[in-house]
Amino acid sequence: MTTYGSKRIVTGAHYGLRDWMAQRATALLMALFTIVLLAQVLFTSQPLGYDLWAGIFSKQWMKFLTFALIVSLAYHAWVGVRDIWMDYVKPVGVRLALHVFTLVWLTGCAGWAIQVLWRL
Fold first, then answer.
1. Taking the CB of residue 76, how many other CB atoms lie within 10 A of it?
2. Is the model's pLDDT at 11 over the cut of 60?
3. pLDDT, tens digit (0-9, with 9 covering 90-100), for 12-53
4. What is the Cα–Cα distance from 14 to 117, expressed in whole angstroms?
5. Is residue 116 predicted with pLDDT exceeding 80?
6. Which domain of life is it from (predicted)?
7. On the CB side of 3, how many CA atoms lie within 13 Å of its CA?
8. What's the confidence (pLDDT) of residue 9?
9. Does the 16-119 domain belong in CATH 3.40.50.880?
């Protein structure tokens, strides 16, 4: 039996499938949140202002949905930006620094957003 080419050892098979599915699931949650929020704004008789926004986000189920959106958005962004760093930044040290910066930035943004949400 003759074999051609080099024997390639494949590691991490299906690694990208989990991230691809996470991107789709988080995008679906963000779309659902957008539809729910638009419905509440469009189908109200109140004038658009602080009282309407505070009323929408004061409900416990909306706070939960918004919290889920913030976490989903942070994870969605992490997967996308991490893939960009892995594909286009070749020096390992620079890539690691960018990964750490991205994680710190996204964690800070998510923490700030949650703080704003819980202040309502």
1. 20
2. no
3. 555 688 899 999 999 999 999 999 999 999 999 999 999 999
4. 36
5. yes
6. Bacteria
7. 4
8. 59
9. no
Instruction: Determine the Cα–Cα distance for residues 70 and 47; give it in Å rounded to an integer.
Output: 26
Report, as an integer, the average pLDDT of 90-108: 97
Q: Which residues contact 76 (CB under 8 A, 6 or more apart)?
A: 22, 23, 26, 27, 30
Binding residues for a ubiquinone: 88
Indicate the domain borders of the chain.
Answer: 16-119
Q: Please report, in range form, the residues annotated as the binding site.
A: 76, 88
Of 18 and 4, more confident: 18
Cα 10 versus chain centre, distance: 29
Of residues 118 and 96, more confidently modeled: 96
52: left (phi over 0), alpha (psi -120 to 50) or beta: alpha
Residues in binding site for heme: 76
